[in-house]
Amino acid sequence: MPSISSFGGYRVCDFLDPFEPKHACLKGLIFSILVSLRNKFIPLFRNCLSELFVNLEDQLSVKGKVYFNTISDKMSFNFVFRLFCDQNPLDTRLGSKGSTMPDKWLFFQLAPLITLGLPKLLNFFEDLLFHTFPLPAFLVKPNYISFIMLFMCPWLRFWTKLRKFQHLWWVENFASCLIKWVGLPGEKLHRELCDEIKTVVRVEGGITFSALEKMTLTKSVVFEDPEKFVGHMFVGEGEKLLKYVYWSNGREIDDLTMENKQCPAKDLVVLLSRIMLVELFLRYDTFTIEAETLVHPPRSFR
């Protein structure tokens, strides 16, 4: 567990065991917050996605390719901030730098998981730098204080920023990782997704819960094989394999409760991932990416 100095001296919900009384109280509070915001998730997320695609196309028209992570980071941050704070971060003292403010603090928490992809002979230096001693919290205290004054609650900020990434094994944000895994298989999978999405949306008359449930391939590609991405893995009979998918501190088929350690937003993240795929392939038939291995999953988008 990271030092509680990184969290204002508190053991946040993520670090509490289920048998501790505060765990159920805090997780119950998170559930109640999510329920209270249920009518905002989808329209706000689709609005943020529209802004993302506009920015993406503006840069693509000029350069022919674009560094996707920067744009998706801003979109993810804007969505979370507008969802919980009910205002645009551009209208606060955060300005356009809001999406980068938590990165330094988050880096200190995730440093033990980082790999630089160095040759084996140099792994010793990587282990010594990132994996041996905890990075001192005082180095990020100014960022922490400035940012926390806007969210006003350490455990909430940690949950909104880190929960989205850690329990999906995503380090930077879910949009970047989703684009990476869907982008790598290439045009064949893209065409199949595009045909399925456009057909179902046309038949259903829009993007509805019923439409999302009928997009079997779209549902399947939200998950990933540990070694290789297989878009059709969970289609048809493959749906039975979902019981072997372990993520978010539990199996995919397990229910969320206050007594377990599964992320309260697990199902929400899956839903938003599907919506992002739908919005993506309603706009584009195919795309290519360049991916790197470090902290940021995809690098550029074409």
From TrEMBL:
Q: Which GO terms describe its molecular function?
A: heme binding; iron ion binding; monooxygenase activity; oxidoreductase activity, acting on paired donors, with incorporation or reduction of molecular oxygen
Alphabetical UniProt keywords: Iron, Metal-binding
Task: Please provide the Gene Ontology terms (biological process) for this protein.
Answer: sterol metabolic process
Which superkingdom? Eukaryota
Task: Look up the coiled coil feature and give its residue ranges.
Answer: none
Look up keyword Iron and say if it applies.
yes
Q: Per its UniProt record, what InterPro entries does this chain match? A: Cyt_P450_sf
UniProt record similarity statement: Belongs to the cytochrome P450 family.
Q: What is this protein called?
A: Allene oxide synthase 3
Upper classification of the source organism reads: Eukaryota, Viridiplantae, Streptophyta, Embryophyta, Tracheophyta
